[in-house]
Description:
Elements: H1 8-21, H2 25-37, H3 42-83, H4 88-103, E1 107-114, E2 119-126, H5 131-134, E3 137-138, H6 143-151, E4 155-157, H7 170-179, E5 183-191, E6 198-207, H8 215-277, H9 282-293, E7 296-301, E8 306-310, H10 331-350, E9 354-356, E10 359-366, E11 369-377, H11 384-424, H12 430-439, E12 448-454, H13 460-471, E13 477-481, E14 484-489, H14 496-511, E15 516-523, H15 526-545, E16 552-554, H16 560-565, H17 571-589, H18 593-602, H19 607-614, H20 618-632, H21 639-654
Amino acid sequence: MSHTPQSPARHLRRLLELLAAGAPAEELGTVAAEARRNGATAEDLAEVEQATEAALRVHSTLRQHRRREAELTALFDTAGDLAALRDLDAVLRSIVRRARMLLGTDTAYLTLPDEEAGDTFMRVTDGSVSELFQNLRLQLGEGLGGLVAQTARPYATPDYRTDDRFLHTGSIDAGVLDEGLVAILGVPLLLGSGSGGQVIGALFAADRTPRTFAPDEVALLCSLADHAAIAIDTAKAMADARIALAELAEANAVIGEHSAAIQRAEESHDRLTDLVLRGGDVADVADAVAGLLKGDVAVHDGSGRPLTTVGAHDGAASGDGGGAPGGGEDGAGAAEAADLVAAAKSSRAAARAVFRDGRWVCAMLAGQELLGCLVLYGRPDLDGPDQRLFERSSVVTSLLLLLRRSVAETENRVRGDLITDLLTAPDRDPAGLVARGRRLGFDLDRPHILLAARTGGEARDRLADAAVQYLFGGGGVSAEHEGAVVLLLPPGGAGPGEAARLAAGQLGQLVGSPVTVAGAGPAAGPRAIADAHTEGVRCLRALRVLGRAGHGASVAELGFLGVLLGDHHDVDGFVTTALGPLLEYDAQRGTQLVRTLRAYFDCGGSLTRAKEDLHVHVNTVVQRLDRVQALLGPGWNTPEQALELQLALRLHLLSGA
């Protein structure tokens, strides 16, 4: 079958149409074959073939331009991602995905160094199906990736398994095999340029079939790697900036809190100082501290006695700043005072406030002398600034106590001169003594309890100062006289014996040695106070003779010795104290316990002779003596008590009762 030859122009137009339509190179090659089938002349056929070669060159150039356009678009998109960087992982995933798309590989991945572990790990993968491959870790110099990181240069291999340019390891080869990779191209992620560049990772593109990567493909992957390096560095800088901003914000908050604490401390210190300068007392300072710290505040002296309390613990002390030394303490109060003294000593040793038993305790010091302690209730969560404010408050309170004590010592010395004159010559000018006392704020016409205290050894020199401390805040006065310390106390509900025992215990703690104290009174007026002092001195001497050094008592508590030593010779009081239960029992029941006891003693303790004297059966005598024991106690027949009972029986008989 013959064909009519066609003009070469028709075939040239066909080539242009295919180029315009973007047809593949294979279709361009069919134009020359078609001209040959259509019987083109040799000259026309040669022209068509030359035109086809030119069309193929144009097609290749267009394909390269389109590829370059796609690469540039990808790079611009990547740059846009970097400009709007919010999530580093998202940017890195986009870069890896574009690398795989532009190079047309089966997979792409990016590795980063682990500074803590000292190796490299897979950060992002795209197209990977092997979990073993995705979890690979490479040491520096191992595998193609290790070589890229070590040399900071790109490397490509058409067949990884047979390439011996890098170090193969079992774990890496197993991962590559599990993923099925053959051809791999790796380029470094570099920060900086030249020899000073730092490798911070590597970007890879890989195929599962043999492949030779062209130079433009290597250049493209290097460009993407540069963007990845910029993204990582930018993200790190932003993270560092966020951390720095957070640290700055935290530091600013701390500075603000510190500044506020300093300002508050200054205001609080000014407020407390102003209180002291305006003549405020301990109660005023305690009230101010309670308001500043939003808690209950108590002030105790060096022996744990309450001086003042503000808040829910007002039962511990009166709010007027004074606790009378003459008052008694029960066992719970003594234990509480001991606990506070122990906590205050811990605070002194630690040079700060301490938390004990649900309360804050801070020692109040004059040098190393423990003046007392400041106690805060209701603030277990006391923070640093408030704790320092509490500690500063204790310093201000210490200064106030020290000032008050200095004033009290001065006043006590002046009053002590008055007491010395009163005890030396009470009858010389009684009215003048009373007037002097009133000018000094001390009313001698009011009843007072007199205490005479004495100690031995080196503690004797400390006793006078200890007496001033003991009386501090209680309204009493003390003076040294004839080798003893005399204390005059306004009566506070306790008798002279109880006041003497309390003073003996607390003065002993203050001087660190046993102190013997005798009590007398109450007495009002110069002559009565002088007589009470004479009685107290005799009682003090009796306590020493009886071996009761370090104790406290009054004449009335010394039994028949009190009758002998006392000025008023209270016979009826002594008889009532010794025989009172028996006298009351006989009066109510018409029994004869007192007569039976007298007969028992008169007969030398013989039951037989006593029953004959009483004209009763011996069993009756035994029963009556059993009742005596029940009323007087099991020690009624001891030599000491028996002597007092016999003396009381004789005095009772002489009284005509």
